[in-house]
Amino acid sequence: MHGPASPGWLLVALCAATGAYCLLRMRSADEGQRRAAGGEALMGFGMAVMAVPAAVFTPPRWAWAAYAAVFGAAALRALWAARSGAHHLHHLVGASAMVYMAVVMAASSASPRAGAGHTHGGGSGVPFLTGVLLLYFATYVLVSGVRLLPVGGGAAGGVAWGDRPELVRACRLSMGIGMLAMLLTM
């Protein structure tokens, strides 16, 4: 991603930690929880790799096609799974956003001028699809943040720490923040 190195490394750390937590959630006894955690782990680690500052590592051009293929497959899986639950639509949007960012990054790495691929023809401003994705993820982050606010005395009791709903929401919130940050740096 384009942008300063320090925030880039913070984003890498946030996404990698989220991906690692999601891997731990895959040990849940609940099959639905395991499936969602697997997709979220893929997103977390994929976002971490994509967020490595370009000053440190510039992936080869073929890597962006690999990103697009992996997250395109994840988007198709989420589309198929969306038949049974609304949260899979969010996974579809997230995976599609990753495909979009990979395509934009491939175009900008192929262009002779740095950053010229993102403005689509040299115009100024934010491309329409980037703006729509920014709006979606900003709304998602705000709604997810509100859902984390405590509303009453329900104790976690015997629920395993990987299955606790507030931790799952915090994981999803941090990935939404990461996606928002990545879209802002494009």
Describe, in plain words, how this protein is organized in 3D.
The protein has 186 residues and is mostly helical. The protein has helices at 5-25, 31-50, 61-81, 87-110, 128-147, 165-185. It has one domain (5-185). It is built from six helices and no strands. The radius of gyration is 17 Å and the shape is globular. Mean pLDDT is 83; it is low at 114-122.
What brief labels describe this structure?
0% strand; 6 helices; 186 residues; mainly alpha; single chain
Structural class: mainly alpha
Span between termini: 6 Å
Biggest sheet layout = none
In one word, what is the shape?
globular
What is the N-to-C succession of helices and strands?
HHHHHH
Total of domains? 1
- In terms of quaternary structure, the protein is single chain
Number of strands: 0
Helix content: 55-70%
Mean pLDDT: 83
Estimated radius of gyration: 17 Å
Provide the fold topology.
Blueprint: H1 5-25, H2 31-50, H3 61-81, H4 87-110, H5 128-147, H6 165-185
Helix pairs in contact: 1-2, 1-6, 2-4, 2-6, 3-4, 5-6
Précis, in short:
By secondary structure, the chain is mainly alpha-helical.
